[in-house]
């Protein structure tokens, strides 16, 4: 172990991969410069940096909203000042794996909304597809530009006890969190201005430029300056800070449903000088609220007639409508088979072993071993609707089992993965806390680009495995190093 007052309480967690220390309690090479820097800093200096980070988050309004008991409570996003560091080789492996996975998922979405060969060949069961609430028949035989359905993906990765990367979730609808990745880096530049260049940390700031370039390329009108808008549900949405940030960084209009109108199967934005035709919509509104004429008739967040304009090819929508069938947790089980089927390759990134509770045998196995399982609803996100078997009481387990039996198709179970740990500055000392990683991939006509980094989420509570901000988690900057 490193000798410094900051490291006195850093006790490795048994059976957990530690990002900073190896199994012999020696600092890994890629953490060496950061640890040497921290060892030279006094507790007072680090406390000042932590306080500065909080003030910067507060002054810049970097918040998210938690909904408890029907009330929206706006909170500052908890930030840990110690970066999570990934080597160039580790990143190259992750990047290859994500590109492979997204290529297969895009092919699956095109197939499932057209010829459905993967169903006919018995690779993915038809009942999994048709029972998914996010499989939208309105998308059947609808061609999307360049056959790209997933333009933006936030693939959640975790590491098991031996350091192996696993994909936990494919977020292919309206993935969030990228603004925190960008803001975390800006805050870190303020806290450690010399450390980033000294460690040869790769930049993440190109994300808005790459996204904007891809959005421009999707315009159905061949004009030099197409109109791009970011469609937000509005100020009460939990990710509204992100919507404003991305619109500002890309230089596009931030709009709500009431700002748009459809006329003659074309979408227009209301402006002070009249109607302006919209070519590309980066939407942060869920499918069911996009068009009240087709989906939820009560929705005031979308635009009446939008689906008709989309079907006519007069507007591009990012991400494509109907992507939820590919990131349903019951479909997730079949992604390795999709990779083999469409690409004739072995998956680079592993899935977490997953049990379908709609299958009676698997359900019986899960019920018998539920103390070692994490049980999730197939269409929930944000850590909601989840049972952590190892931490639940008998009463909670019995209640949850009853819920499962009402609708087994809507649940999956996975063995409890230990999640790797990284150093966090808590209470004036470094302590290990569990983390995951959400890299952001952008798919455009020129291929898939992944900014080197992502959002590392942290379970700030000691012993916790839940990293979601809505469940008390935080985040830290993610450094991907250049080859030295």
UniProtKB/TrEMBL annotation:
Gene3D superfamilies for the chain: 3.30.1490.270, 3.40.50.11290
Highest taxon listed in the record's lineage: Bacteria
InterPro entries: ATP-dep_Glu-Cys_Ligase-2 (IPR051680), CP_ATPgrasp_2 (IPR025841), UCP005522 (IPR016450)
Positions of the Circularly permuted ATP-grasp type domain: 83-459
PANTHER family referenced in this protein's UniProt entry, alphabetically: BLR5612 PROTEIN, SLL1039 PROTEIN
Name of the protein in its database record: Circularly permuted type 2 ATP-grasp protein
Source organism of the structure: Mucilaginibacter terrenus
Taxon lineage: Bacteria, Pseudomonadati, Bacteroidota, Sphingobacteriia, Sphingobacteriales
């Amino acid at each position: 172990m490193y000798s410094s007052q900051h490291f006195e309480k850093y006790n490795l967690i048994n059976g957990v991969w530690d990002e900073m220390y190896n199994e012999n309690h020696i600092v890994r090479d890629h953490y060496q410069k950061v640890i040497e820097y921290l060892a030279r800093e006094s507790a007072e200096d680090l406390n000042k940096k932590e306080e500065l980070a909080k003030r910067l988050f507060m002054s810049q309004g970097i918040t998210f909203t938690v909904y408890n008991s029907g009330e929206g409570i706006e909170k500052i996003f908890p930030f840990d000042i110690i970066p999570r560091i990934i080597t160039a080789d580790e990143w190259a492996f992750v990047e290859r794996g994500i590109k492979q996975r997204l290529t297969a998922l895009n092919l699956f979405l095109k197939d499932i909304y057209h010829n459905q060969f993967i169903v006919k060949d018995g690779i993915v069961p038809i009942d999994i597809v048709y029972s998914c609430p996010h499989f939208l028949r309105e998308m059947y035989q609808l061609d999307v530009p360049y056959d790209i359905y997933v333009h933006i993906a936030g693939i959640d990765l975790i590491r098991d006890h031996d350091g192996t990367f696993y994909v936990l979730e494919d977020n292919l609808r309206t993935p969030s969190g990228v603004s925190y990745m960008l803001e975390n880096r800006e805050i870190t530049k303020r806290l450690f201005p010399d450390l980033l260049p000294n460690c040869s940390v790769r930049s993440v700031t190109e994300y808005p430029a790459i996204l904007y370039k891809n959005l421009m390329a999707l315009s159905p009108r061949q004009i030099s300056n197409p109109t791009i808008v970011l469609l937000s549900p509005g100020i009460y949405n939990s990710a509204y800070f992100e919507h404003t940030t991305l619109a500002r960084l890309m230089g596009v209009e931030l709009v709500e449903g009431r700002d748009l109108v459809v006329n003659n199967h074309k979408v227009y934005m209301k402006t002070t000088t009249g109607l302006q035709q919209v070519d590309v919509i980066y939407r942060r509104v869920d499918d069911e609220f996009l068009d009240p004429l087709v989906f939820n008739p009560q929705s005031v967040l979308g635009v009446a007639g939008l689906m008709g304009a989309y079907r006519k090819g007069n507007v591009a929508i990012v991400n494509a409508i109907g992507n939820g069938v590919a990131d349903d947790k019951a479909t997730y089980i079949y992604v390795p088979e999709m990779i083999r089927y469409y690409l004739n390759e072995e998956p680079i990134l592993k899935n977490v072993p997953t049990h379908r509770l709609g299958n009676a045998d698997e359900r019986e196995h899960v019920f018998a071993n539920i103390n070692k399982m994490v049980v999730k609803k197939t269409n929930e996100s944000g850590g909601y609707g989840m049972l952590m078997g190892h931490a639940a009481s008998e009463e909670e387990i019995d209640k949850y089992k009853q819920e499962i039996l009402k609708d087994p198709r809507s649940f999956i179970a996975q063995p409890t993965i230990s999640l790797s740990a990284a150093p966090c500055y808590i209470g004036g000392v470094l302590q290990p806390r569990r983390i995951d990683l959400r890299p952001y991939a952008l798919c455009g006509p020129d291929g898939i680009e992944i900014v080197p980094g992502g959002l590392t989420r942290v379970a700030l509570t000691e012993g916790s495995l839940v990293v979601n901000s809505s469940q008390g988690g935080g985040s830290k900057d993610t450094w991907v190093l250049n080859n030295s």
